[in-house]
Write the C-alpha coordinates for this entry.
Amino acid sequence: MSENIHPIFDRLVKRSEREVFLNQKASVFWFTGLSGSGKSTIAEGVERRLLELGYLAQVLDGDNIRKGINNNLSFSIEDRKENIRRIAEISKLYVNSGIITLCSFISPTLKIRSLAKNIVGENDFHEIYINTPLAICEKRDVKGLYKKARSGEITGFTGIDSPYEAPLNPQLELKTENLAIDQGVDKVVQYIIETVRI
Amino acid sequence: MSENIHPIFDRLVKRSEREVFLNQKASVFWFTGLSGSGKSTIAEGVERRLLELGYLAQVLDGDNIRKGINNNLSFSIEDRKENIRRIAEISKLYVNSGIITLCSFISPTLKIRSLAKNIVGENDFHEIYINTPLAICEKRDVKGLYKKARSGEITGFTGIDSPYEAPLNPQLELKTENLAIDQGVDKVVQYIIETVRI
Protein backbone atom coordinates (compact mmCIF):
# COMPACT_ATOMS: atom_id res chain seq x y z
CA MET A 1 0.00 0.00 0.00
CA SER A 2 1.31 3.38 -0.95
CA GLU A 3 2.72 5.47 1.82
CA ASN A 4 1.71 8.58 -0.11
CA ILE A 5 -1.39 9.39 1.80
CA HIS A 6 -3.85 11.56 -0.07
CA PRO A 7 -4.25 14.86 1.80
CA ILE A 8 -7.93 14.12 2.37
CA PHE A 9 -6.91 11.40 4.79
CA ASP A 10 -4.73 13.69 6.83
CA ARG A 11 -7.62 14.76 8.96
CA LEU A 12 -10.48 13.00 10.65
CA VAL A 13 -14.04 14.02 10.05
CA LYS A 14 -14.59 16.79 12.57
CA ARG A 15 -17.52 17.17 14.89
CA SER A 16 -18.29 20.50 13.23
CA GLU A 17 -18.60 18.77 9.85
CA ARG A 18 -21.07 16.27 11.29
CA GLU A 19 -23.02 19.13 12.85
CA VAL A 20 -23.28 20.83 9.47
CA PHE A 21 -24.32 17.51 7.89
CA LEU A 22 -27.05 17.03 10.51
CA ASN A 23 -27.92 20.73 10.65
CA GLN A 24 -27.72 20.82 14.44
CA LYS A 25 -25.27 21.54 17.19
CA ALA A 26 -24.55 18.55 19.40
CA SER A 27 -24.77 18.68 23.18
CA VAL A 28 -25.48 16.53 26.21
CA PHE A 29 -28.69 17.09 28.17
CA TRP A 30 -28.41 15.33 31.48
CA PHE A 31 -31.72 14.51 33.19
CA THR A 32 -31.39 13.95 36.92
CA GLY A 33 -34.08 13.18 39.49
CA LEU A 34 -35.47 10.50 41.76
CA SER A 35 -36.49 7.05 40.59
CA GLY A 36 -40.01 7.43 39.24
CA SER A 37 -39.65 11.21 38.74
CA GLY A 38 -40.50 10.86 35.06
CA LYS A 39 -36.98 11.48 33.70
CA SER A 40 -36.99 8.76 31.08
CA THR A 41 -40.59 9.33 30.04
CA ILE A 42 -39.83 12.98 29.40
CA ALA A 43 -36.50 12.22 27.72
CA GLU A 44 -38.20 9.73 25.39
CA GLY A 45 -40.91 12.24 24.55
CA VAL A 46 -38.23 14.83 23.84
CA GLU A 47 -36.32 12.39 21.62
CA ARG A 48 -39.41 11.76 19.50
CA ARG A 49 -40.43 15.40 19.30
CA LEU A 50 -36.93 16.40 18.22
CA LEU A 51 -36.96 13.77 15.48
CA GLU A 52 -40.27 15.14 14.21
CA LEU A 53 -38.66 18.58 14.14
CA GLY A 54 -35.69 17.29 12.15
CA TYR A 55 -33.15 16.79 14.91
CA LEU A 56 -31.27 13.56 15.62
CA ALA A 57 -31.21 12.75 19.32
CA GLN A 58 -30.47 9.64 21.34
CA VAL A 59 -31.66 8.74 24.83
CA LEU A 60 -29.19 6.91 26.99
CA ASP A 61 -30.82 5.40 30.06
CA GLY A 62 -30.84 2.32 32.25
CA ASP A 63 -32.60 0.31 29.58
CA ASN A 64 -29.89 0.53 26.96
CA ILE A 65 -26.88 1.08 29.27
CA ARG A 66 -27.35 -1.14 32.32
CA LYS A 67 -28.48 -4.03 30.13
CA GLY A 68 -25.61 -3.57 27.69
CA ILE A 69 -22.20 -2.04 28.27
CA ASN A 70 -22.69 -1.73 32.03
CA ASN A 71 -24.15 -5.20 32.61
CA ASN A 72 -20.98 -6.10 34.54
CA LEU A 73 -21.45 -3.39 37.15
CA SER A 74 -23.14 -3.74 40.53
CA PHE A 75 -24.75 -1.00 42.58
CA SER A 76 -21.76 -0.62 44.92
CA ILE A 77 -20.49 2.92 45.36
CA GLU A 78 -17.43 2.17 43.23
CA ASP A 79 -19.49 0.63 40.44
CA ARG A 80 -22.03 3.45 40.46
CA LYS A 81 -19.16 5.82 39.83
CA GLU A 82 -17.86 3.62 37.01
CA ASN A 83 -21.42 3.45 35.63
CA ILE A 84 -21.61 7.24 35.35
CA ARG A 85 -18.03 7.52 34.07
CA ARG A 86 -18.76 5.17 31.17
CA ILE A 87 -22.06 6.91 30.40
CA ALA A 88 -20.29 10.25 30.29
CA GLU A 89 -17.59 8.83 27.99
CA ILE A 90 -20.24 7.40 25.66
CA SER A 91 -22.04 10.75 25.69
CA LYS A 92 -18.79 12.39 24.67
CA LEU A 93 -18.47 9.98 21.75
CA TYR A 94 -22.05 10.74 20.71
CA VAL A 95 -21.51 14.48 20.89
CA ASN A 96 -18.43 14.12 18.75
CA SER A 97 -20.66 12.23 16.30
CA GLY A 98 -22.86 15.33 16.13
CA ILE A 99 -25.78 13.85 18.02
CA ILE A 100 -28.00 15.46 20.66
CA THR A 101 -27.57 13.17 23.64
CA LEU A 102 -30.26 12.82 26.30
CA CYS A 103 -28.96 11.08 29.40
CA SER A 104 -31.53 9.94 31.93
CA PHE A 105 -29.97 8.72 35.15
CA ILE A 106 -30.78 9.31 38.82
CA SER A 107 -27.14 10.40 39.31
CA PRO A 108 -27.97 11.37 42.88
CA THR A 109 -25.00 13.40 44.09
CA LEU A 110 -23.35 16.65 43.17
CA LYS A 111 -20.06 14.78 42.97
CA ILE A 112 -21.24 12.16 40.51
CA ARG A 113 -22.81 14.75 38.20
CA SER A 114 -19.65 16.82 38.47
CA LEU A 115 -17.68 13.78 37.30
CA ALA A 116 -19.97 13.48 34.28
CA LYS A 117 -19.68 17.18 33.51
CA ASN A 118 -15.90 17.07 33.67
CA ILE A 119 -15.73 14.19 31.21
CA VAL A 120 -18.27 15.61 28.76
CA GLY A 121 -16.90 19.12 29.03
CA GLU A 122 -18.71 22.02 30.68
CA ASN A 123 -19.78 23.70 27.45
CA ASP A 124 -21.55 20.57 26.25
CA PHE A 125 -23.22 19.66 29.52
CA HIS A 126 -26.73 20.85 30.37
CA GLU A 127 -28.28 19.73 33.61
CA ILE A 128 -32.04 19.24 33.60
CA TYR A 129 -33.52 18.66 37.02
CA ILE A 130 -36.75 16.66 37.01
CA ASN A 131 -38.07 17.82 40.35
CA THR A 132 -40.78 15.44 41.50
CA PRO A 133 -41.44 15.15 45.25
CA LEU A 134 -40.44 11.86 46.83
CA ALA A 135 -44.00 11.26 48.04
CA ILE A 136 -45.29 11.30 44.46
CA CYS A 137 -42.50 9.07 43.14
CA GLU A 138 -43.13 6.64 45.97
CA LYS A 139 -46.89 6.66 45.42
CA ARG A 140 -46.42 5.80 41.73
CA ASP A 141 -43.76 3.18 42.41
CA VAL A 142 -43.98 1.95 38.81
CA LYS A 143 -41.22 -0.62 39.27
CA GLY A 144 -42.17 -1.55 42.86
CA LEU A 145 -38.72 -0.47 44.03
CA TYR A 146 -39.82 1.95 46.75
CA LYS A 147 -41.83 -0.80 48.38
CA LYS A 148 -38.79 -3.05 48.34
CA ALA A 149 -36.61 -0.24 49.71
CA ARG A 150 -39.06 0.49 52.55
CA SER A 151 -39.21 -3.18 53.48
CA GLY A 152 -35.42 -3.42 53.43
CA GLU A 153 -35.42 -5.91 50.57
CA ILE A 154 -33.13 -3.52 48.70
CA THR A 155 -30.78 -1.09 50.37
CA GLY A 156 -28.98 2.07 49.35
CA PHE A 157 -32.04 3.27 47.46
CA THR A 158 -31.98 6.95 46.55
CA GLY A 159 -34.48 8.98 48.55
CA ILE A 160 -35.05 6.24 51.12
CA ASP A 161 -31.77 5.20 52.69
CA SER A 162 -29.42 6.97 50.29
CA PRO A 163 -29.38 10.73 49.71
CA TYR A 164 -30.48 12.66 46.64
CA GLU A 165 -28.68 15.98 46.30
CA ALA A 166 -30.68 18.34 44.12
CA PRO A 167 -28.73 20.35 41.53
CA LEU A 168 -27.69 23.73 42.86
CA ASN A 169 -27.85 25.54 39.56
CA PRO A 170 -29.47 23.40 36.84
CA GLN A 171 -29.83 24.86 33.35
CA LEU A 172 -33.50 23.83 33.49
CA GLU A 173 -35.75 22.64 36.28
CA LEU A 174 -39.16 21.02 35.82
CA LYS A 175 -41.41 20.97 38.83
CA THR A 176 -43.59 18.19 37.56
CA GLU A 177 -46.21 18.10 40.32
CA ASN A 178 -48.68 20.19 38.38
CA LEU A 179 -47.26 19.69 34.92
CA ALA A 180 -48.58 17.30 32.26
CA ILE A 181 -45.94 15.19 30.60
CA ASP A 182 -46.39 16.88 27.23
CA GLN A 183 -45.98 20.27 28.90
CA GLY A 184 -42.72 19.05 30.42
CA VAL A 185 -41.59 17.76 27.06
CA ASP A 186 -42.46 21.13 25.49
CA LYS A 187 -40.34 23.02 27.98
CA VAL A 188 -37.34 20.77 27.47
CA VAL A 189 -37.66 20.76 23.68
CA GLN A 190 -37.82 24.54 23.68
CA TYR A 191 -34.66 24.77 25.78
CA ILE A 192 -32.82 22.21 23.67
CA ILE A 193 -33.72 23.83 20.37
CA GLU A 194 -32.37 27.16 21.59
CA THR A 195 -29.10 25.34 22.27
CA VAL A 196 -28.78 23.13 19.19
CA ARG A 197 -30.25 25.30 16.47
CA ILE A 198 -27.68 26.32 13.86
CA MET B 1 -47.66 15.18 36.49
CA SER B 2 -50.54 13.48 34.73
CA GLU B 3 -50.39 9.72 34.64
CA ASN B 4 -52.35 9.78 31.38
CA ILE B 5 -49.48 9.24 29.06
CA HIS B 6 -50.06 10.44 25.53
CA PRO B 7 -49.92 7.43 23.18
CA ILE B 8 -46.96 8.92 21.34
CA PHE B 9 -44.85 8.25 24.42
CA ASP B 10 -45.76 4.62 24.58
CA ARG B 11 -43.02 3.71 22.22
CA LEU B 12 -39.40 4.63 21.87
CA VAL B 13 -37.98 5.98 18.65
CA LYS B 14 -37.11 2.85 16.73
CA ARG B 15 -33.90 2.18 14.89
CA SER B 16 -35.91 1.88 11.67
CA GLU B 17 -37.25 5.43 12.15
CA ARG B 18 -33.73 6.74 12.57
CA GLU B 19 -32.65 4.87 9.45
CA VAL B 20 -35.44 6.51 7.48
CA PHE B 21 -34.46 9.90 8.94
CA LEU B 22 -30.84 9.38 7.92
CA ASN B 23 -31.73 7.62 4.67
CA GLN B 24 -29.37 4.74 5.38
CA LYS B 25 -29.37 1.33 6.95
CA ALA B 26 -27.11 1.04 9.98
CA SER B 27 -24.51 -1.69 10.38
CA VAL B 28 -21.18 -2.42 11.98
CA PHE B 29 -18.10 -2.81 9.78
CA TRP B 30 -15.35 -4.38 11.80
CA PHE B 31 -11.83 -3.81 10.48
CA THR B 32 -9.31 -6.36 11.74
CA GLY B 33 -5.63 -6.70 10.95
CA LEU B 34 -2.15 -6.31 12.37
CA SER B 35 -0.86 -3.16 13.98
CA GLY B 36 0.28 -0.95 11.12
CA SER B 37 -1.84 -2.78 8.54
CA GLY B 38 -3.62 0.43 7.60
CA LYS B 39 -6.96 -0.36 9.26
CA SER B 40 -7.55 3.03 10.80
CA THR B 41 -6.24 4.97 7.83
CA ILE B 42 -8.66 3.13 5.57
CA ALA B 43 -11.54 3.40 8.05
CA GLU B 44 -10.98 7.14 8.34
CA GLY B 45 -10.89 7.52 4.56
CA VAL B 46 -14.12 5.52 4.34
CA GLU B 47 -15.76 7.66 7.02
CA ARG B 48 -14.99 10.83 5.07
CA ARG B 49 -16.00 9.42 1.70
CA LEU B 50 -19.31 8.21 3.12
CA LEU B 51 -20.02 11.65 4.55
CA GLU B 52 -19.38 13.20 1.14
CA LEU B 53 -21.85 10.70 -0.32
CA GLY B 54 -24.49 11.63 2.25
CA TYR B 55 -24.02 8.84 4.78
CA LEU B 56 -23.38 9.31 8.50
CA ALA B 57 -20.62 7.04 9.77
CA GLN B 58 -18.44 6.98 12.85
CA VAL B 59 -15.01 5.42 13.29
CA LEU B 60 -14.36 3.82 16.66
CA ASP B 61 -10.68 3.08 17.19
CA GLY B 62 -7.94 3.20 19.76
CA ASP B 63 -7.80 6.97 19.61
CA ASN B 64 -11.32 7.64 20.81
CA ILE B 65 -11.87 4.42 22.81
CA ARG B 66 -8.63 3.61 24.61
CA LYS B 67 -8.20 7.25 25.60
CA GLY B 68 -11.80 7.57 26.75
CA ILE B 69 -14.16 4.91 28.02
CA ASN B 70 -11.48 2.21 28.12
CA ASN B 71 -8.76 4.29 29.77
CA ASN B 72 -9.05 2.09 32.85
CA LEU B 73 -8.15 -1.12 30.99
CA SER B 74 -4.71 -2.68 30.70
CA PHE B 75 -3.46 -5.02 27.99
CA SER B 76 -3.94 -8.17 30.09
CA ILE B 77 -5.92 -10.96 28.44
CA GLU B 78 -8.93 -10.26 30.65
CA ASP B 79 -8.84 -6.54 29.94
CA ARG B 80 -8.42 -7.05 26.21
CA LYS B 81 -11.60 -9.06 26.28
CA GLU B 82 -13.37 -6.34 28.25
CA ASN B 83 -12.00 -3.78 25.79
CA ILE B 84 -13.63 -5.56 22.87
CA ARG B 85 -16.83 -6.28 24.81
CA ARG B 86 -17.32 -2.58 25.56
CA ILE B 87 -16.52 -1.60 21.97
CA ALA B 88 -19.09 -4.09 20.69
CA GLU B 89 -21.71 -2.76 23.12
CA ILE B 90 -21.00 0.81 22.02
CA SER B 91 -21.25 -0.30 18.38
CA LYS B 92 -24.64 -1.79 19.17
CA LEU B 93 -25.78 1.52 20.65
CA TYR B 94 -24.56 3.35 17.55
CA VAL B 95 -26.32 0.92 15.21
CA ASN B 96 -29.53 1.43 17.17
CA SER B 97 -28.97 5.16 16.64
CA GLY B 98 -29.00 4.50 12.89
CA ILE B 99 -25.31 5.15 12.35
CA ILE B 100 -22.86 3.27 10.16
CA THR B 101 -20.19 2.16 12.60
CA LEU B 102 -16.61 1.55 11.52
CA CYS B 103 -14.62 -0.31 14.17
CA SER B 104 -10.88 -0.46 13.71
CA PHE B 105 -9.19 -2.78 16.20
CA ILE B 106 -6.51 -5.46 15.84
CA SER B 107 -8.91 -7.92 17.55
CA PRO B 108 -6.41 -10.71 16.91
CA THR B 109 -8.31 -13.92 17.62
CA LEU B 110 -11.30 -15.71 16.19
CA LYS B 111 -12.69 -15.90 19.70
CA ILE B 112 -12.51 -12.19 20.42
CA ARG B 113 -14.13 -11.28 17.09
CA SER B 114 -16.79 -13.90 17.73
CA LEU B 115 -17.51 -12.20 21.06
CA ALA B 116 -17.96 -8.90 19.24
CA LYS B 117 -20.20 -10.48 16.61
CA ASN B 118 -22.41 -12.09 19.23
CA ILE B 119 -22.94 -8.80 21.02
CA VAL B 120 -23.57 -6.74 17.89
CA GLY B 121 -25.70 -9.43 16.27
CA GLU B 122 -24.69 -11.48 13.25
CA ASN B 123 -26.88 -9.59 10.76
CA ASP B 124 -25.28 -6.29 11.65
CA PHE B 125 -21.68 -7.47 11.79
CA HIS B 126 -19.43 -7.28 8.73
CA GLU B 127 -15.85 -8.39 9.05
CA ILE B 128 -13.31 -6.57 6.90
CA TYR B 129 -9.88 -8.13 6.92
CA ILE B 130 -7.05 -5.71 6.22
CA ASN B 131 -4.50 -8.23 5.07
CA THR B 132 -1.07 -6.64 5.19
CA PRO B 133 1.95 -8.93 5.60
CA LEU B 134 3.74 -8.69 8.91
CA ALA B 135 7.01 -7.77 7.21
CA ILE B 136 5.41 -4.68 5.70
CA CYS B 137 3.74 -3.62 8.94
CA GLU B 138 7.01 -4.08 10.77
CA LYS B 139 8.96 -2.16 8.17
CA ARG B 140 6.57 0.79 8.45
CA ASP B 141 6.45 0.66 12.26
CA VAL B 142 4.72 4.04 12.39
CA LYS B 143 4.38 3.99 16.17
CA GLY B 144 7.72 2.27 16.84
CA LEU B 145 5.92 -0.60 18.53
CA TYR B 146 7.41 -3.44 16.51
CA LYS B 147 10.88 -2.28 17.45
CA LYS B 148 9.89 -2.30 21.11
CA ALA B 149 8.28 -5.72 20.75
CA ARG B 150 11.40 -7.17 19.06
CA SER B 151 13.63 -5.77 21.77
CA GLY B 152 11.35 -7.19 24.46
CA GLU B 153 10.48 -3.75 25.78
CA ILE B 154 6.83 -4.64 25.28
CA THR B 155 5.46 -8.16 25.37
CA GLY B 156 2.36 -9.90 24.08
CA PHE B 157 2.53 -7.91 20.85
CA THR B 158 0.34 -9.28 18.05
CA GLY B 159 2.37 -10.82 15.25
CA ILE B 160 5.59 -10.94 17.30
CA ASP B 161 5.02 -12.89 20.51
CA SER B 162 1.24 -13.10 20.39
CA PRO B 163 -0.75 -14.74 17.58
CA TYR B 164 -2.89 -13.11 14.92
CA GLU B 165 -5.60 -15.42 13.64
CA ALA B 166 -6.80 -14.30 10.23
CA PRO B 167 -10.57 -14.32 9.65
CA LEU B 168 -11.75 -17.58 8.09
CA ASN B 169 -14.58 -16.09 6.12
CA PRO B 170 -14.51 -12.28 6.13
CA GLN B 171 -17.19 -10.37 4.24
CA LEU B 172 -14.40 -8.40 2.60
CA GLU B 173 -10.63 -8.85 2.42
CA LEU B 174 -8.18 -6.23 1.26
CA LYS B 175 -4.74 -7.45 0.28
CA THR B 176 -3.08 -4.13 0.66
CA GLU B 177 0.42 -4.99 -0.54
CA ASN B 178 -0.21 -3.70 -4.05
CA LEU B 179 -3.17 -1.50 -3.32
CA ALA B 180 -3.10 2.28 -2.91
CA ILE B 181 -5.00 3.58 0.10
CA ASP B 182 -7.64 5.29 -2.01
CA GLN B 183 -8.18 2.05 -3.92
CA GLY B 184 -8.71 0.26 -0.62
CA VAL B 185 -11.10 2.95 0.52
CA ASP B 186 -13.00 2.60 -2.77
CA LYS B 187 -13.46 -1.11 -2.31
CA VAL B 188 -14.72 -0.76 1.24
CA VAL B 189 -17.04 2.14 0.39
CA GLN B 190 -18.50 0.13 -2.47
CA TYR B 191 -19.16 -2.82 -0.19
CA ILE B 192 -20.65 -0.63 2.55
CA ILE B 193 -22.97 1.25 0.23
CA GLU B 194 -24.37 -2.01 -1.09
CA THR B 195 -25.19 -2.86 2.52
CA VAL B 196 -26.51 0.45 3.81
CA ARG B 197 -28.33 1.87 0.81
CA ILE B 198 -32.08 2.13 1.33
